[in-house]
Amino acid sequence: MIVAEQKNLEEIMRMIAPYERVMILGCGTCMTVCNAGGERETSFLHGALRLAQSKSGEGTHSFSEYTVKRQCDYEFLEVLDDKIDDVDTILSLGCGIGVQAIAERFPDTPVLPGVNTAFMGMAKEWGIWDERCAACGECRLEETGGICPITRCTKGILNGPCAGTKNGKCEANTDMDCAWILIYNRLERLQQLEKMRRYYPPRNFLAVARPKRVITKANTEAGENNG
Amino acid sequence: MYSPAENAQDYGPQRLVRHPNRSLVPPCQAACPLHMDIREYVDLVAQGRIMEALQVIRNGNPFPSICAYVCTHPCEEDCRRTQVDNPVAIRALKRFAVEFGGDRMILAEAETTRSERVAIVGSGPAGLACAYYLRKLGYAATIFEAHTELGGMLRVGIPRYRLPRQVLDTEVQRLTQMGVEIRTNTRVVSLDLLFELGYKAIFITIGAHQSLKIGIDGEDSLGVIDGATFLREVNLGLKPSLGDRVAVVGGGNVAIDAARTAARLGAKKVIILYRRSRAEMPADPEEVKQAQEEGIGILYLVTPTAIRREAGRLSVTCVKMKLGDPDESGRRRPVVIEGSEFKRKFDTLIAAIGQAPQTPGEFGIRIGKGSTIQVDPVTLTTNRAGVFAGGDAVTGPATVTEALATGRMAASRIDDYLQHRYPVADKVDRETLTGDLLPETIQMIRKIGRIEPAILPLEDRAKDFKPVELVYDWETATNEARRCLRCGMGAEILFQDKCATCLNCLRVCPYHAPYIDDSGTIQIPVEQCQACGICIAECPAKAIIMRKPYDRRHIAEELEHTLKSAAESKYKPFIVGFCCQYGLFGTGALAGLWRSAKAGVWIVPVLCVAKVEADQMLRAFEMGADGVFIAGCGEQCARENTASWVQQRVARVRKTLAQVGLEPERLHAFSPDMTNEDPARELDNFTEKISGLYLASVLMQEVKS
Asked: A123 near A30, Cβ under 8 Å?
């Protein structure tokens, strides 16, 4: 899942300042799961913005709110067609993908990001989220016992651990597990410790050309443009 | 029909989701012959809303004060709280509601809108209930009673220490107020005569007053009396002389009643002879316990085989029994142990082994097994046109509540008959909750033992016929009522299409109720949910609702109402408090908060603070509140984790307050200490703090302008 964090209220207020009619648009998928921009957060932000406006005594915004199933697909955005003319901007609580999808779908309406998209990760427990994948495009989890050193090692090194590990924790943050110790323990458990003896050559960052595209259509030529 | 699509986007403070009652019928209600809305009135008692509780009780029961004393409470047998500790004391709570809600003051009114007159033969609970509902339906009704006073078994069978006669008299008076014509001392000998008198329908409810014979030698001796006759004589004011030693034969409620009555009449030694063991005894265990406390002896596995009158006393030959194979009633059949005869001397022997109806042959109605009247179970009709029957006369000895239910049913069947409608069986529109609590759920449910109502001290009991059981006090009643698990009204994912399967509900539920089914969909099993409301306030998709709407007071609705009233008031500072309606209001502490609160404090009663959502706290500030507090019931809470979820939301909203330039301490959550003499002190402190902040902000504004 994509994990994000709602932006500071102050920043949001600064962004919406030039616009009068603001639609706060929630997303019913990843942003709901990570408690950043689901229906509940949308309506909480709505309340907070109105409260801020009434306390400051300034600002003439009128707010509306709506939550779509998923912002990152045009088809789900169709329901906004008859509402878009009534707003001056959309404050999207979707991830960066959702914000861009809206920008593409409604080219005449400014869209503002209401959340900071943080990472791809999972819930450790209720209310705590951890990063798990950096979408590097060349997955090596097979070699590292299913634990990603690129994401979970502070340095992202491929041949660890480094000298900064102490009692299984990382020198950068002593609360954080050293990914390479985790990898070692897991490989030991799987009786695959020989994988620790191998040397992994440095990643070729040149090979990652952005923006990336994945094609699952088998019977057609790759399309042009990227959006 | 409620459409989720219509409401799904109507959020924000204006979001007032109204949906119909989708809750399941709880087992207690299903077990009640009258199908009373027990969960509802118990919940109202838990909130201290006694008069509303009484209203709910009266909706389902014509004579709640009678049931409050003598109901055999099959509801408690089926109460799911039994799986956790002990059942909720439902009957005692009803008694509390009836006594404290002012049932005696309620006037029953009825108007005659129909021309047909109906005769009711017999004035037991079935007859009285039938008369009550016939009047409600607009028919003129006449009750014929052979005895001097109305009530049937309620009057002549049940001893006064179990049902005070004033209670019965109040109900009878209420029937008179409703315009029921009453003919006491009138034995009906011919139904034809009643039809000739112009009655269009007759309801026969003559009860089962004929005691069964034990069938042994010497049963007709002087000094042997049957249980029903004995109780009737005592209840009608006679004082039979019993002598010192009394034996009672039988193990039902009548036997226990007879024994306890004999003790109260001055018998020195009363012994019950029962042919099976304690486990098979049909009498109410509570009554048996009280009887034993009063010094009544019980000989189990003993039955008399012969009675002889010798020198002015009874010589009773008894034999010991052992238990054999189960009989058709499922109880183990007693078998005589050969050679175990023994003799005992008694002055009086009361035979209370059962009763049967005795229907006059002149009625010309078909009699079936055990001398009972044969009726159609749906229409209650006998073989004679226009003649209906019900109560013990049809079923054999049964309970008061069952008789009331039959009386109510008879009234509507008679209505069907007189209005030439096809009679249909009562329709059940909601499903009944089935399924047991899982061990994991039981483990998480807070164990709170059942609080029995106090009973009259032993030394006050045996002397006279004062009611033995006392009524709850206010605080005990609300605490007992809060033990209810609110079966079948918990959380439900109403908007499955909105559910993002985020698993928040699964993670926040203190009872581990939600689970992921085989298709990967989240399910909240209704039989495990404890209706605490935490998942409803935490669901990020707002996809979960309560199966039953939050009472009549939806929090958001109540909040808007309060904010509107407050806006018209000029008191400052303006403080909004979300207060738990259960512990606080129920035990009177909320009333205490109200009384001692300074002007400008507005209280939104909530059914558990765990249901207060973060946006509702913000909304109060938006509408001009200078401070907001949340008062939970703290340690008294019957649910788990509620306070910590309030703290979590408060911390969240405080952050937002800081961001908009309001002091975070304007929002405060606390649990008034019930043991403290002044639970309102914390509120006073808070009010003072908010007053300070308010004055400071006023000054700031003046400086600015």
From this structure: no
Mean confidence (pLDDT) of chain B = 88
The domains of chain B are located at 27-106+439-481, 117-208+357-418, 210-355, 490-549, 555-704
Give the closest-approach CA distance of B40 to chain A in angstroms: 30
- CATH number for the segment(s) B117-208+357-418: 3.50.50.60
As to burial, measured by CB atoms within 10 angstroms (0-12 exposed, 13-18 middle, 19+ buried), residue B294 is middle
Q: Which CATH superfamily is domain B210-355 in?
A: FAD/NAD(P)-binding domain (3.50.50.60)
B467-487: pLDDT as tens digits:
888 899 888 899 899 999 999
Cα gap B530→B552, rounded to integer Å: 19
| ipTM here | 0.89
Decide if B222 contacts B238 (C-beta within 8 A): no
CB B570 within 8 A of CB B594: no
Per-residue pLDDT of B551-568, as tens digits, reads 545 788 888 888 888 888
Q: How far is CA A157 from CA A178, A182, A204, B124, in A?
A: 11, 14, 13, 89
- Compare CB distances from A51 to B539, B540, B621 and report the shortest one's residue: B621
- Residue B315 corresponds to which tokens in the numbers above? 């010589």
Question: Contact B500/A51, CB-based, under 8 Å?
Answer: no
CA A174 vs CA A165, A168, A170, A181, B488: distances in Å: 9, 9, 5, 13, 48
Q: How many CB pairs under 8 A join A and B?
A: 90
From the options 3.10.50, 3.30.420, 3.30.1400, 3.40.50, give the CATH code of B555-704: 3.40.50
Structural domains of chain A ordered from first start: 2-119 (3.40.50.2300), 134-207 (no CATH)
Q: B678 CB contacts (<8 Å, ≥6 apart)?
A: B596
Enumerate the residues of chain A whose CB falls inside 8 A of the CB of residue B618. Answer: 44, 47-48, 51
Task: Compare all CA atoms of chain A with the CA of B621 and give the residue at the minimum distance.
Answer: A51
d(CA B23, CA B14): 25
Residue type, A35: N
Contact B541 A28 (CB under 8 A): yes
Topology (CATH) of B27-106+439-481: Fumarate Reductase Iron-sulfur Protein; Chain B, domain 2 (1.10.1060)
Kindly report the length of chain A: 227
Question: What is the gyration radius of the CA atoms in chain A, in angstroms?
Answer: 22
Contact state of A47 with B618 under an 8 Å Cβ cutoff: yes
Rounded CA separation B107/B127 (Å): 20
Residue B177, φ and ψ in degrees, nearest 5: -60, -35
User: In Å, what is the CA distance from A86 to each residue of A70, A78, A90, A91, B650?
Assistant: 21, 15, 11, 14, 35
What pLDDT is recorded for position B1? 30
Residues 6+ apart with CB under 8 A from B102: B51, B54
